[in-house]
Amino acid sequence: MNLKEIFKTSFDMFLKWPKVILVKAIVELRDKYLQAQDRINQLEKENAQLKRELEQEKIKNTNKEVNKPSSKQAEWEKGSEAGKDKGKKKPRGRKRKPRKGAGNRPKNKTPNREETATVDKCDLCGKDLSGQAPLESTNERIVEDIVAPPEETIVTLVTQQKKYCADCQAVITAKLDLALPGADIGLNATVLICYLWVALCLPYPKIKEYLKTFYKLSVSTSGLSRHVIKVARIMHNVHDEILNGIKHGTILHADETGWRVRGKNWWLWVFGTPDTAYFTVDKTRGVKSCPPSARGNILRSPGGRWLGRIFILDM
């Protein structure tokens, strides 16, 4: 059956229908066509939206794979392989005991001051609550802080009295307890300078900057150097006590490392026993660097060789 015969058959059939039924059929066909057209438009919009979302998802996945190192896997992707460990119980290993002092331990110190934080307005809507009475329930926190940096240094004028001793026939001047003899830097600053230089290994420029920034104390790097040398001279007796401790030690531990002195290579030596340690800087790396009081002891240090009367053992 060709197209001509189809139209002829349909036309003959429509001629047999009453006019009312024919109009009703045409109206129903028109409504169904309009509904189908609306449905097609809606599906086309949804299809376009899904295509855009799919394209954005592809871009996100591409960026995530590009920015991630090839040798590592993201935390949220671990164990996400389909059906790899599904239904299997993870083996439970032996639980380790927590390290001593680990965790956020509560403060057990007695507070030496108290403060009250008030509610002046609502954090959600901004309503003024300053005139409202607070509730009976409160929260308490312990906050531990350090002392605020001073705005200025403590400058003290000390008047040293003098008295005449008739027995000795000499004028005695009162000694100063706030600073070392002949120094204009106080003891508190001296202790801090020595700690920063010895314990924290900070250079003089950094110590100068730290004192100026937090304590408003102005001192030059050369002044810091002279002050540390002054402290070292006062500690000379302590050095002798350390050498005596090394002298009476049975086994002496030692090690050395390179040390720059005025642009030249020197050696920093450390000699120690279980109770004492002695540091010295020397030009050479040989036996002459060992303190004379320690020679003759058995020395433990990397090397494994004889040096005079000192036998060096491998640690």
UniProtKB/TrEMBL annotation:
Comp. bias intervals (Basic residues): 86-110
Biased amino acid composition, Basic and acidic residues: 54-67, 74-85
Cited Pfam families: DDE_Tnp_IS66
Region (Disordered): 54-117
Domain Transposase IS66 central: 193-287
Domain of life of the source: Bacteria
PANTHER family: BLL1576 PROTEIN
Name of the protein described by the UniProt record: Transposase IS66 central domain-containing protein
Gene source species: Desulfosarcina ovata subsp. ovata
